[in-house]
Amino acid sequence: MKSIIYLSALVLTLSACGGKKPAAETTDSAVNPNIVTLTAAQLENAAITTGKIEQKEISSILKLNGKIDVPPQNMVSISVPLGGYLKSTKLLPGMHVNKGEAIAVIEDQQYIQLQQDYLTAKARIAYLENEYNRQKDLNQSKASSDKVFQQAEAEYRSQQVLIASLAEKLQLIGINARNISAAKISRSVNIYSPISGFISKVNVNIGKYVSPTEVLFELVNPTDIHLALKVYEKDLDKLYIGQKLVAYTNNQPEKKHEAEILLIGRDLSADRNADVHCHFENYDKTLVPGTYMNADIQVKNTRAYVISNEAIVQFEGKQYIYKVIGNRQFEMTQVNTGESENGFTEILSPAKDMTPNAVFVTKGAYSLLMMMKNKAE
C-alpha cells in the first residue's frame, strides 16, 4: 500500500514540474511581443536568408505633372488690320493649312478707297517731280526765288512719303501696290496663313463684320510642342538644364515619351511652384496641346543605407524589418523607408541598435510576420 502511495506522489510531482515549462515560455513572449523564436523545422520551412544593411548608390524618382503646351511662335491669332466683312472661308476647327495658303476673303469699301488714294498720289507725283526739277533749274539761274523752289521741293518730298505710306498700308492688308492699276482695283483681300498647322478656333461666320481688334481664327503648329511641368520650390534645386525624363498620360501610362529639360522657371506662383519646360525627343502626332501628362525624373544619386525589398514587411500601417538577436530568435524593428531601386529600399531612420555588425532577415520576413500573428491569435 505504501509503495502505491509513493508512486502516485512521484507521478504528481513529475507532472507538476513538466507543466511549468510552457508557462515560462509564455512569460518570455509576453515580455517582448516583437520577438519570435523558431524551431529548427520552422526555420528550415521559412527559407529565411540573413544579411547586413549596406550602403549603395540609389537614385530617387521625382514625380511631376503638367500639360502639353505650344510656344508663342507656334500659336497665331489671325485678324484683319483694317477690318471688313467676311466674304468666304472654308475653315473648320481641326483642319490643316499650309503656310501661305489663302484661308479667307475679306471685303470692304475702304480697300477700294485705299487703292484709289495710292493711284491718285502716284499719278500726281509725276507733276510734282517735274515742277520740282523746273524750279530747281530756275533757282540755280536766279530766275526764281528760294521760297518758290523750297515749296516745290516740300510738296514733292511730301508726295513721296504719302506714296510710300499708302504702299505699306496696301502691303499690310495683302495687296501688292505694284499689281494695282486703274483697271485693277479690288474690293476684297485674301487672308493668308502665316504658318503651317491646324485650325484650333474659328470665331466668325460669313457675312459678319470684323474689327481690326477681333480675332478671326487661331492656328497652332504642333510640331514644336513642349511639356510644361509644375515643380514645387523645394524640388527646383534637384533639376538642371538638359536633364532627361519620361512622360506619360493617364490614359496610356505604359507608353513613355522621352523628353529633356530646356528651361527652369524662377518665378514662383502663389502655390510656391514654378514652370519647367521640356522638349520631347520625338514628335508624336497623338500628343495634343492641352493634354495633361505625368513625368518621372531621376534625380542625382545619393549614397544611402539599403536593405533588400523582401526584408521589409508592412503591419498596421507601419514598416518593419527583423533583426537576428539569437539562435533562431528574431526581433521585429520599425523603420522608415525612402526610395527603392534594383531590388533595394533605402532605410531613412535606422534604429539605434543597427550597428554595422547587426544581422537582419533579408528574405522570408513575411513568414516571420505570419508566425507572430498566428501565435498572437
Any idea what the shape is?
elongated
Low-confidence stretches: 1-30
The neighbouring-strand order within the major sheet is 4-13-16-15-14-17
Round the Cα radius of gyration to an integer and report it. Answer: 43 Å
DSSP E strands, number: 24
Question: Please, what is the average pLDDT?
Answer: 83
Helix content: 25-40%
Coiled coil: 111-169
Family: Belongs to the membrane fusion protein (MFP) (TC 8.A.1) family.
Keywords: Coiled coil, Transport
Organism: Mucilaginibacter rigui
How would you concisely characterize the structure shown here?
InterPro entries: MFP_Cation_Efflux, RND_pump_MFP. With 377 residues, the protein is an alpha+beta fold.
Question: How would you explain this protein's 3D organization?
Answer:
The strands form six sheets. A six-stranded antiparallel barrel has the order 4-13-16-15-14-17. It has a four-stranded antiparallel beta sheet with strand order 1-21-20-19, covered by helices on one side. The chain has a four-stranded antiparallel beta sheet with strand order 3-18-23-22, with no helix packed on it. The longest helix is centred in the N-terminal third of the chain and has 32 residues, at 109-140. Strand 20 and strand 21 (329-335) form a beta hairpin. The protein has three domains: 31-58 and 303-376, conserved putative lor/sdh protein from methanococcus maripaludis s2 fold, CATH 2.40.420.20; 63-72 and 221-300, Elongation Factor Tu (Ef-tu), domain 3, CATH 2.40.30.170; 109-185. It has five helices and 24 strands. It has helices spanning 2-31, 40-46, 109-140, 146-172, 365-376, and strands spanning 35-37, 49-51, 54-58, 61-69, 75-78, 84-89, 96-97, 102-107, 188-192, 197-202, 209-210, 217-220, 226-232, 244-248, 257-264, 273-280, 292-298, 302-308, 313-315, 318-326, 329-335, 337-341, 344-347, 360-363. It has 377 residues and is of the alpha+beta class. Helix 3 (109-140) runs antiparallel to helix 4 (146-172).
